[in-house]
Amino acid sequence: MSLIQRRALVDPAHPASIRQQCQWLSLPRSSYYYQPCPASADELLLMRLLDEQHLLTPQYGYRKMTLFLRDKGHVVNHKRVLRLMQMMGLEAIYPRPNTSQPAEGHTIYPYLLRQLSIVRVHQVWATAQAALRYHLCTDGRRLYVLDGDHRLV
Fold first, then answer.
1. Which of 54, 65, 112, 114 has the highest local Cβ count within 10 Å?
2. Residues 6 or more apart from 85 whose CB is under 8 A from it?
3. Bridge partners, residue 136, by sequence
4. DSSP for 102-121?
5. What's the pLDDT tens digit per position in 14-38?
6. In which element (H, E) is residue 143 found?
């Protein structure tokens, strides 16, 4: 049960004291009486600036964001920027570990030229189909270049 749910269960009109109810719910009394203070106008401004900059440069972490805010003339330290970014759910986008591991169900294609010894120029050709959208075909005597719709080029 979450803290908010346990706070809602405490009833001041109940015959048992608040202290006893908090003890039954394993809820510290300080958590029951805590009133969160609203964010200041300065923090809201910083959060807006962080959000706008994160949309422009999502690779920036808290250190670069701190430098960005200081360049804008705000007096902030890295701990404050880190806290605000965590509160907003902002996180730098960067390559994570094990990105080279294949996904489950990924087809591993065989390397067809492994047993072939390449001894002369133009013995093997390759093309990036995604970039060129051309296919190379042969009938044994001629080489045909087809476009993405399989038309002769």
1. 65
2. 50, 62, 65, 91
3. 145
4. PPTTPPPPP-TTTT----ST
5. 999 999 999 999 999 999 999 989 9
6. strand 143-147
Tokens standing for residue 133: 């959208």
Task: State the amino acid at position 128 in one-letter form.
Answer: A
CA dist 17 and 42 (Å) reads 40
Query: CB-based burial of residue 108 (10 Å sphere; 0-12 exposed, 13-18 middle, 19+ buried)?
Result: exposed
- Look up residue 127 and give its two tokens: 């093309």
Res. 112 pLDDT band, cuts 50 70 90 = confident
Taking the CA atoms of 56, 57, 62 and 67 in sequence, report the sign of the dihedral they define: negative
In terms of Cα–Cα distance, which of 21, 41, 37, 38 is closest to 29?
A: 21
**CB under 8 Å to 129, separation ≥6 — which residues?**
135
Q: Is the pTM of this model over 0.70?
A: no
